[in-house]
């Protein structure tokens, strides 16, 4: 219980700090908006073939705006020398990881709530798929990406070139999640007849999420104390 309580304190601290500065979340939303605008100019929204790129665009937005938030997650603690204080406090290191994860995941959800409807609106996308399945894919895909990303951000924060190192570490590890999420999103948005295929991709993502979340949870103590 104290683990979750401490994690909520960390998440609350990060979200309150972001609410005051409005730096990371604003940057993520602006980036997502610019990405959608660039794609809308690159592809003709009135062309039906263009609709095929929408699942890919959704996950491009999630991945790259997510990296912007993840990069700042632990760097802010390093710059303010607060990480050492957190580590010597009577708080389990897993609480720090869980709190950072909750803060990053909350910001990612906010970006998705703003970006995805804007994308559908700009591309005049007539939604005919299964909304619960679509939301579920977004949730588990983002969950896996952010949980692994938060862990790797803590690892990369000790490097001088952390902003370059994080994507290099993150993309290979999260590739199965992203491939599965794009494929499942494409089927759910465009071809519900192949829903069993989408469910198979969802099961793959869920299994990957569980395995890596547990691994991150177990290994974070060693990473933070390096």
Protein described:
By secondary structure, the protein is mostly helical. The protein has one domain (2-224). It contains eight helices and no strands. It has helices spanning 2-21, 24-42, 54-79, 83-88, 93-122, 131-156, 162-190, 195-224. The longest helix has 30 residues, at 93-122. 38% of the residues are buried. The model has no long low-confidence stretch (mean pLDDT 84).
Features:
mainly alpha, 8 helices, 226 residues
Count of DSSP E strands?
Answer: 0
Given the helix and strand composition, which structural class is it? mainly alpha
Distance between the termini: 26 Å
Q: Shape from CA axes? A: globular
Share of residues in strands = under 5%
Give me the secondary-structure topology.
Blueprint: H1 2-21, H2 24-42, H3 54-79, H4 83-88, H5 93-122, H6 131-156, H7 162-190, H8 195-224
Write a brief caption for the model.
By secondary structure, this protein is mainly α. It is built from 8 helices and no strands. The mean pLDDT is 84.
């Amino acid at each position: 219980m104290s683990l979750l309580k401490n994690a909520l304190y960390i998440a609350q601290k990060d979200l309150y700090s972001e609410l005051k500065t409005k730096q990371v979340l604003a940057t993520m939303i602006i980036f997502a908006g610019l990405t959608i605008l660039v794609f809308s100019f690159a592809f003709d929204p009135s062309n039906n073939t263009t609709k095929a790129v929408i699942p890919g665009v959704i996950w491009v937005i999630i991945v790259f705006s997510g990296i912007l938030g993840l990069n700042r997650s632990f760097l802010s603690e390093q710059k303010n020398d607060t990480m050492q204080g957190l580590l010597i406090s009577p708080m389990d290191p897993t609480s720090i990881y869980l709190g950072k994860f909750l803060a990053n995941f909350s910001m990612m959800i906010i970006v998705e709530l703003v970006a995805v409807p804007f994308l559908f609106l700009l591309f005049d996308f007539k939604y005919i798929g299964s909304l619960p399945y679509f939301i579920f894919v977004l949730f588990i895909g983002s969950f896996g990406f952010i949980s692994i990303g938060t862990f790797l951000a803590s690892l990369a924060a000790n490097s001088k070139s952390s902003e370059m190192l994080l994507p290099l570490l993150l993309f290979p590890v999260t590739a199965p999640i992203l491939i599965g999420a794009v494929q499942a999103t494409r089927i759910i948005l465009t071809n519900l007849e192949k829903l069993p295929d989408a469910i198979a991709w969802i099961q793959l993502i869920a299994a990957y999420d569980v395995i890596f979340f547990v691994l991150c949870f177990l290994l974070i103590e060693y990473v933070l104390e390096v």
